[in-house]
Design brief:
nine-stranded mixed β-sheet; 15% helix; 3 helices; disordered N terminus; 31% strand; 252 residues
Amino acid sequence: MKKRKSTIVQPPSLGQISKGGLRANFWDYVERVTGHRSLKRFISQGLVLTLLSDLPSVWGVVLRGQSYKKVLGSVGESCFIEKNVRIRVPERIFLGDRVIIEENACLDATYHDSQIRLGNDVRIGRSSVLKAGIGEIIIHDGVLVGRFVCFVANGCIEIGKNSLLGDMITLASANHVFDDPATPMKFQGIELSRIEIGEDVWLGSLVTVLPGVRIGDGSVVGAGSVVTKDIPPYSVAVGNPAKVIKKRGSAS
C-alpha cells in the first residue's frame, strides 16, 4: 500500500449550482455525470446505463454485466450488476472478474481523474455508496462489502484482500477545513488523507473509520466502533474511540 499523505485542497466547482441559468447548469450536470462536457458521451452513456438500469430478472443482471463494458473503464468476466445501480463517470470505474453489485448501489467516480477499482470476486451490498471524490477507491480481490455502506474517498480508501465489511459502515478519508470562523466551511477546502484496511480484516456493522487510519492485517473491529487511530495487525478493537482489547486468537 502507498504511503499515507495529507493535503489541503479546494475542491473543483464541478457540480456546484451555477448562476448562469439552465444552460450552464445543464452542462455542469453533463460533466458531473460523465466527467466531460460532451453531449455525445452523455447521450451514448445514458442510453446504455438508463435503458438497462431497471431491467428485471436474471436476464437484466447478465445483460448489464455485458453491456456496461461499452461505457465503464473495464468490466471483467461473469460480472453481475443488479437493477437500479447508479454509475457516475463510468470511464473511471474498473471491475475485475465475477464482481457482484447489488440493487440500488451507487458507484460515483466523481471526476475524470478519480477512480474506483474493484478486484476479482468483490461483492458490493445493496444501497451502498462508493464515492471517489478527489481520489480513489481500491478494493482488492475477495472483499465482501455489506449493505448501506458509505465510502467517501477524498484522498484514498484502499481495502486489502478477503476483508469483510458489515452493514452501514462509514469510511471517510478527508476532513473539512474549519479554521476561519468568518468563512463558511464549505469554502475553506478539504484535507485529503488515506484510509487503509489491511487483508483479512473484519469490520462489524456500524463501524466508522476516520481519515488517516490504518487497520492492520487480520484485525477485527467490533460493531458500532469509531476508529480514530491505527489498529495493529491481528488485533481485536472495540469502542468509541476504538481501543485494542486483545490480540486475535488470544484468550484475553
